[in-house]
Amino acid sequence: MGDEINMAKKLKLDKSMAMYEEALKSVPGAVAGIRRPYNFVQGEYPIYFEHGKGGRITDVDGNEYIDYLCAYGPIIIGYREEEIDKAVQKQVNEKGFCFSLTQPIQNDLVLKLKEIIPSCEMVSLVKTGSDATTIAIRVARAYTGKTKIARCGYHGWHDWCVEVKGGIPEKLYEDVLEFPYNDLQKLEDLLKANKGDMAAIIITPIGHPLGSAVEMPKPGYLEGVRKLADKYECVLIFDEIRTGFRVALGGAQEYLGVTPDLTTVGKAMANGYAVAALVGKEEYMKVLATDVFLSSTFFPNSDSIVAALKTIEILQRDKVLDVVAAKGEKFAADVNKVIADSGMPVEFSGAPWMPFITFFRDDEGLYKKLRVKFYTELIRRKVFLQPYHHGYICYRHTDEDLAYTVNAIKESLDELKSMV
What we know:
By secondary structure, this protein is an alpha/beta fold. The protein has 13 helices and 13 strands.
């Protein structure tokens, strides 16, 4: 790949495009949701991947990329991690993984989560982030007897929180009220206006708004959110689907020192296997035993539980998150220097865990053209980042991968100078 960095030719994507056209005949949109071509640069990005290993993926046309999207977050170590896959294969081959009753290994994962997540006294295992955030809201409403929810961040695709409202009656989300990140006054105004009927505050502890720069909390912000939740007697939920098992083993709450009442985790917990969880203080979680219904055929499946246990074992044993943070800090410093030297209207955010390159918005809309051109140049240099969604650093990204990427970013920015 090093010999190709000066080549910015359009990639050969014939197989991807043919498969896409064929899929359109049978699958609405051909591929699901955020993976559709309009979320990238249409005609420049692949649509189908063939395989991945470590920090790289290869598309169906044979193009290999350094992948910083990491399957939208689950890949914390790397693709096709043999130690994890072998543990899962052993479970499937020797014991099976889908039964009418629960296998005892569930208890092992629950105890591990209680050990490492500050807010965790009890655990409910589910499959997806949307499962976890939705059951968190149900628990909060059942516990408090209240209805309204204050939300900040992306919390999944279910009726109460999805941004695209097609097919959803307004009555299913009219009691979910949004507030901006890093603004305590706006949150208190919202809580005060709905005093007596606010069941919960759900927030991503690190801000990652759609299509915009990643935000760290201002000094005292999360502490202030915690105090407001107590003041207005509502449940505080941290949505740590992205930050859990990445910012720290115990999530952003461990790193930032603020403990919520309930927490959702998933994504990096099992390095790509489908598992998520709602964890929290016993006082709130125990409503799931009697007052709140939660069930699924596949929630207890042990293949993903084994994967989660093995992933956490590796994260702890090899100090993976320290390595990821160190890689991410150096990458951020190098990219910020490139950006400063370029003089372009662009910023880098999300260091060290969730790198994102965004362009400053202007009234004329130049930022949109710059964004398309930049990400076109980047993908042609075989660096896979998403124009509208932050990326991730994983353990298997090598120093050489990161250095190559910094240079690719520099060259891509250089290609924009004639546009400004």
